[in-house]
Amino acid sequence: MVALPGVDPSWSTYIDVPSTSGSDAPGTSHRWHYLDNRLGLGGDDDARGTLLCVHGNPTWSYLWRSYLAAGTAAGWRVIAVDQLDMGYSARTGAFRRLADRITDLEDFVRAIGLSGSVVTVGHDWGGVVSLGYANRNREHLAGVILTNTAIHQDPDRPIPAPLRLALAPGVHGMGTRTTRAFLDVTLALARPSLDRDVRRAFRDPYRSASDRQGIANFVSDIPVDDSHPSYAALTATATGIRSLRVPTLMMWGPHDPIFSDPYLEDLARRMPHADVHRFEHAGHLVQEDADTASTAMEWLATRSVGDAADHTDHGSSPDEVPYVPLGRRIDELAAGPEGAVTAVAEMSSSGPPRTLTWRELADDVAAVAAGLEALGYGSGTRVSLLVPPGVDLTVLIYACLRIGAVIVVADAGLGTRGLSRAVRGSAPDVVIGIERALGAARAFGWPGRRISATPLSAARRRVLRVDASLNDLRAATALPDVLADSPVPAADADAAILFTSGSTGPAKGVVYTHRRLAAMRDAVESTLGLGPGTALVAGFAPFALLGPALGATSVTPDMDVTAPRTLTAQALADAAGAIGASVVFASPAALRNVLASSGDLSAKGREALHRISLLLSAGAPIPVPLLEAVQGLVPAAALHTPYGMTESLLVADIDLDGIRAAARAAAAGVDGAGNGVCVGHPVHRARVAVSPLDTTGAATGDVTAAPGVTGEILVDAPHVKDRYFRLWKTQQDSARTRPWHRTGDVGHFDADGRLWVEGRLGHVITAASGVVTPVGLEQALELLEGVRLAAAVGVGPGGTQAVVAVVEATAAVRRPQLADAQLAAEARSSARERGVELAAVIAVPALPVDIRHNAKIDRARVAQWSSRFLSGTRAGSL
To answer: Domain 328-515 adopts which CATH fold?
Structure first.
């Protein structure tokens, strides 16, 4: 074997192995090639166990080179085989079926005398072979690791198009054996493209047509249906692994045209105890696209694989507090004198509000729950809800929770690609949506059966492949009471997967259990005083959904909640007047438009707003001038700006008077006051601390709440998320300082215990003069005349980054340019007062902000663009 990038020559090993496969004559022996890091460990006694890595088609053991290096460092022996007829192993001249390959692997393991704990690792069709081995050799099996593979082909689903093409009679031989087409197409799936030397290494064992016979045979051995010779072996393995109870890790590249998410879902259902991590940007060659080796080693250590220890997750759990199911108040109010009082309302520009009383809401929830169960949905079913906030979404959420189904909530504010990524990644069993959402489900091939939230014609139902409508579910009450024997969902069972905004990277699914959702309700009630008798205008989706759980009457204004700027002052006033609201929740972007349209308010509308006693706004930093202007519209209201995130809806809270007091403290030089946005004190039952930053900008310090110490913000509360959905590595990173959840935000405390947020951990600038957080500097720049919005970013290598200010100018700027001399001088002076030297000040027509909040600046994008702009490269527009 020639020298190859990433491979230690000492790893390359050959051995002659007697064959017991039925495809070989008795007494046959074959020469195997494999990579083995044994010498680097000093012998088997020094290893924690062995990873037995099996490649698929058309790769070879070279695929696992990063595992051999990582295993050496972590104390694991790693053996990566070249299957017979593949890589540098012998060409046997026999057609080797799946059963033969499983036996081959057993022969190899026997020949090398492998003992001790074994973890099988597989990819592609090597995943099937490794699982077949694991299923038949359980005595020393310590764990299973799988990457992009499949163990079962749904008979109602065609095999992937690339494999259908490769199997086509006119293509198969030419594409897999005569030419390198199949090999080259597979290598081209890498994201990003493979380095030239790495591509050459993958091709090296397959130079001639005879070298590629194994590739052709492997493709032919794909069991497309139950008549295929390898179908029985595949089925036996697929059935057998259901009883495997060893620790299991699945690492997946979702951009795989072959082994896509449905195959992951099938494996996850067969092995429900498995940990899963989807590398969002990776594809079929996930080992090349992402650092799966380090993740595997971390997982082995975390799960104590290879040690005499239990393998359960000892993660944090909420304090033992009284648990009341989220929908309990609906039933209580429905049964009491409040049953005839309005519970939910939905405003419409085309007619009167749609309303349900508490009794009607309870009945509708029960009816829809019965309909769902009649269709076979129940505990553990994942239901993607693509319905705008309002009456129907409220009913669907509480109906799903009642039967133990897991609601999946991701909104259109993620954009088409982001929403599609979220829905596909959550692998729903059923999608319930409005017609537009069901059209997207069909166009993008989202998984799950389809239910329409609105009535559709028979023709549209056929086109959109809709099984039923929401009204059909309600009609199921004519059936026997299917809910009579439905158990109350367990407190610690999954209840919801809520997707983050995606403003700081791909949206993540955040898993809440029933207990944690109930704790979220309790935190809102205790902190903000919302409960029975409250009337709430919910211009922010989470509070529209929590209203019934709080026992509060809630109304959704006439707006697109995924586009907050669509909320007008009159629409807000109409909603408040419809239910006599005393509380309003709206995002900063919505409030800006409310102010901009306040001149159109009717006298009756102004009266409705004057009755508001509490206004809440969150989702992004809110400037004091905006709050003070809003105060003029709701003069009787206390203005609160709670701080939180999808992973913990409430972390801290502060009101306008508190913000003013914090500003005075900053002006007076109170220890820790200033340099960020003050978000107040921790909410009910929440603890908050920081992990201090080191000189590289990493949060490595011991947990503290000392004033003036900047670090990553940590929170511990009963209402913090349970975990991220199928993002094992992300969850580990967020929970590595148990019991704290690491938020990814950066901030500090002042001497009065108030929390100040300084930005995101990923946006920290590491200049030669020290660490710079962006928010305080941006706030100072936004006070300058001529600056509407500012972003502070770092350009250049870490540790010596140049600090660059990119400002959205109030004056017309037609294209990006260096700021004029006066603005640049004022910006530099303002930064210098904060101990920061600006390398450049760039004026742009507009800064990129996220769709949903219309306020969070995409600093990563600004930094990348600034680097190109300042280097003289054609940067384009932001």
So the answer is: Rossmann fold (3.40.50)
